[in-house]
Specification:
about 20% strand, seven-stranded mixed β-sheet, alpha/beta, about 220 residues, about 30% helix, globular, Aminopeptidase, two-stranded antiparallel sheet
Length: about 220
């Protein structure tokens, strides 16, 4: 049976929960499209996060990998298109470190494109009645570090596995502490992630539909 590794993060930035982990951990052991879901929590620590991720990749040898992170302020499920080779932290990580303009991989390529069928995922999530879109930036915090690091690992290992990153909004209880911020229920996020796994495993060619942005 195939295995899908799903990762998410511990809380950071003063939050008591991280919606990515609350959703992803609910999928542990679940079977979707003939694959078993295995989950791992990642630290919001620049110096540690890729070590934890790479250890999981070596141990599990998954057929697909979907990493998930919190994007407070976003209103929908956003499937990331690209990870870039830079750490530029707006806030300190959970170890108090704040790298600025540092390469994730010295002499690595400037960027990697997602290996997920990003537009097919967005279309399927929308069809289920859940807001979703393609995102053109995964930021420059630990989420982007994980996306770039994951895709770099796949490239250097010669792996054909699909992999990429999805950002999700605050939970309603988080948004209540950030007046005006959008949110999404954990149930809707979980449903969207289940759809993302199914599409990743079943759709061989991504849709060629508009998913760009003007800014």
């Amino acid at each position: 049976m195939k295995t899908v590794l799903m990762t998410a993060f511990e809380p950071f930035g003063g939050e008591d929960v991280n919606p990515s982990w609350e959703a992803v951990r609910a999928l542990e052991g679940k079977q979707i499209a003939g694959a078993t879901i295995v989950t791992r929590q990642l630290p919001v620590v620049f110096s540690e996060v890729l070590n934890v991720l790479n250890q999981a990749l070596d141990e599990i040898k998954p057929d697909a990998i979907i990493s998930v992170g919190q994007a407070g302020g976003r209103s929908d499920i956003t499937v990331e298109r690209i990870g870039i080779n830079v750490d530029d932290a707006r806030i300190p990580d959970n170890a108090g470190k704040q790298p600025v303009d540092e390469a994730i991989v010295l002499d690595g390529p400037a960027a990697y494109f997602s290996r997920l069928p990003i537009k097919a995922i967005v279309a399927a999530v929308r069809e289920a009645g859940i807001p979703a879109s393609v995102s053109q930036t995964a930021g420059t915090f630990t989420c982007n570090r994980v996306m770039y690091g994951l895709l770099h690992w796949l490239q250097t290992q010669g792996s054909s596995a699909r992999g990429g990153f999805i950002h999700i909004p605050y939970l309603p209880e988080q948004a209540a502490q950030h007046p005006g911020a959008p949110s999404m229920s954990s149930a809707n996020v979980i449903q969207a992630l289940e759809i993302a796994v199914r599409v990743t495993l079943e759709i061989k060619e991504d849709l060629k539909v508009v998913g760009g942005a003007t800014h």
